[in-house]
Design a protein that fits this description.
globular
């Protein structure tokens, strides 16, 4: 297997470095863009956009629209539950010294996306949009919590507002005049800027492809990110299974 293929198989491995964290963030940002776009095109909700959802719920409480308020609350609650589930899974595996703790979370996300992509078109329930919003919101919460754990809270894959803010900060540092005699010059962080721009760009590309794919294929377009997540999460599970288990009470 090529070194690139080996690298891809280790994106969710327990032994981490900055490069693996960055590349996992790139993949999850693209996945988030796809899921977020599909959620909006399908049912009219951005399931990763908590700022917008909270604002939408507040506006609709004043302007009227009980259905929108309730669905917004479902999306927000599902996002929180997803982040909570990630913390439970991650810490359960960490206390048992499992090396596949990141992969376990991604596997759950992959299975949920696979179920939505494979079965949503055949669901005849009149209110299936509620279930879709709940599942996609849960997945978004899971993956955002996961990359927070992986990166030590330095990277988010769905929080575009924060990343665009950081891009502006780094650009401001680079534009700041440099004085030769300044003992503490203002310096921009070009690698960080490129990483943030790449994450935002991949979120955007995922959104475009998700919308186009949904219009052409419907919910089966979600099978693509589901398969990618399975491809990343399954190899560390097998590798982790060969490591000794040690129960920590």
């Amino acid at each position: 297997m090529t070194s690139r293929g080996t690298h891809l198989l280790h994106l969710a491995a327990g032994d981490r470095d900055e490069r693996l964290n960055r590349h996992l963030a790139y993949l999850l940002a693209w996945v988030a863009g796809v899921l977020n776009s599909v959620g909006f095109v399908a049912v009219g909700f951005y399931t990763s956009h908590m700022t917008g959802l909270v604002a939408l719920v507040a506006d609709r409480l004043v302007l009227g629209g009980l259905t929108v308020v309730l669905m917004g609350l479902v999306a927000i609650t599902s996002f929180v539950l997803g982040a909570m589930a990630c913390a439970l899974q991650f810490n359960w595996a960490r206390r048992r010294l499992r090396h596949d703790r990141f992969a376990l979370v991604l596997l759950v996300e992959a299975v949920l996306v696979l179920i939505v992509g494979g079965l949503a078109e055949s669901v005849t329930w009149a209110h299936r949009e509620w279930l879709i919003v709940a599942v996609l919101g849960f997945v978004m919460g899971q993956q955002n919590a996961l990359i927070t754990k992986v990166s030590g809270a330095t990277i988010r894959t769905t929080h575009v507002t924060g990343m665009v803010t950081d891009i502006g900060i780094e650009l401001g540092k680079m534009a700041y005049p440099r004085r030769p005699a300044d003992p503490d010059p203002v310096r921009g962080d070009l690698p960080k800027l490129l990483m943030l721009a790449t994450i935002v760009g991949l979120f955007f590309v995922g959104g475009v492809l998700g919308a186009l794919g949904f219009l052409a294929l419907g919910f089966p377009v979600l099978l693509v990110p589901a398969v990618l997540l399975l491809g990343v999460s399954v190899p560390p599970l097998f590798a982790g299974g060969n490591r000794p288990w040690k129960h920590v009470p």
